[in-house]
Amino acid sequence: MKLKVNGTEHQIDVEPEMPLLWVLRDELGITGPKYGCGIAQCGACTVHVDGQAVRSCQLPVGALAGEVTTIEGLGSPEALHAIQAAWIEHQVAQCGYCQSGQIMAAAAFLDVNDAPTDAEIDRALSANLCRCGTYPRIRAAVKTAAAKLAEA
Amino acid sequence: MRLLVFLFTLLPLSATAQDGGGLAAWERIYQVTSHPRCANCHVGPDNIPLWSGPSYGDTRAHGMHITAGESRIGAESVLCSACHVATTQPNDTPHTPPHIDGDWRLAPVEFEWFGKSSQEVCTQLREPNRNGGRSFVELADHLKHDAFVAWGFDPGGTREPAPFTLEGHVNDMLAWGAAGQPCPGD
């Protein structure tokens, strides 16, 4: 079967039941999305499908309908996405394991709410767990990114 | 369709022969609509889906601070489909998000069932301006074809299904309709 990830077409030979996360990490070597809980309770595996945040551990690749974007395709070191730049500015990451999922979830959220309140950020990102407890910095980074996107 | 014809042959008989047959059918329908498997996503204007079941203790708000928003599909924050992906492949492992072959969502807010009385749900379901514009035959048809309804009776894994069977529920809807959609308190 074929799938498009970060703008590149890939041909894969896997069972359609295989979760997208396995395809990305084990078949394509795209290891930005992380395996956390495997049951959509932590958000570490979040990627975009046609711009919408999806838990890739829950999506059988046979049911995939759209283009996949992972953290590797969101921005580049030379041209960071606003949320990635804000992440660095606020030094959000502690251990960093959850940040790929956090950033992908935040980027998708800013597409639907470009000026979120603290309460709205909490609503949208509570499905992404951070065991280091960096939530105040996550919230600050999302606000900074929203402000930067508003200027653009 | 064959079932429908069969029922229409029988229903006038049973409705007249058995006084209150329509209300008895309604009471079974209400056992379904008030069951947490169905009512947990037929919530009011707070737009927050509920979780309950043998492993949860009391009914509680959906985890992860989830709200489905006014869109009732989570479009304002996290789409229901971020986890409840549309696929024919069921998700039976305990505590995984259930999947159906369709878009996961809350029922429209005017179909609020959670915590509502038998009379309240009954009158809502028989009024076309509050039931999606459906006759009782169309209600039964909806039950037969909606992926959510089918899932409710067969949710997989260790999840508790809605009571009775889908076929029985469809038959009760038709029997209730053929009896004139009687409600408690009429």
UniProtKB/TrEMBL annotation, chain A:
The keyword Oxidoreductase applies. Residues 1-74 form the 2Fe-2S ferredoxin-type domain. Its EC number is 1.17.2.1. It is an enzyme of class 1 (oxidoreductase). PROSITE patterns: 2FE2S_FER_1, 2FE2S_FER_2. The keyword Iron-sulfur applies. One of its GO terms (molecular function) is metal ion binding. Keywords: 2Fe-2S, Iron, Iron-sulfur, Metal-binding, Oxidoreductase. Pfam families: Fer2, Fer2_2. Coiled coil: none annotated. InterPro entries: 2Fe-2S-bd, 2Fe-2S-bd_dom_sf, 2Fe-2S_ferredoxin-like_sf, 2Fe-2S_ferredoxin-type, 2Fe2S_fd_BS, Beta-grasp_dom_sf, Diverse_Oxidoreductases. SUPFAM superfamilies: 2Fe-2S ferredoxin-like, CO dehydrogenase ISP C-domain like. It comes from the Bacteria. This is Nicotinate dehydrogenase subunit A. It comes from Roseovarius aestuarii. The gene is nicA.
TrEMBL record, chain B:
Residues 1-17 form the signal peptide. It comes from the Bacteria. Keywords: Signal. InterPro entries: Multihaem_cyt_sf. This is Uncharacterized protein. It comes from Roseovarius aestuarii. The lineage of its organism: Bacteria, Pseudomonadati, Pseudomonadota, Alphaproteobacteria, Rhodobacterales.
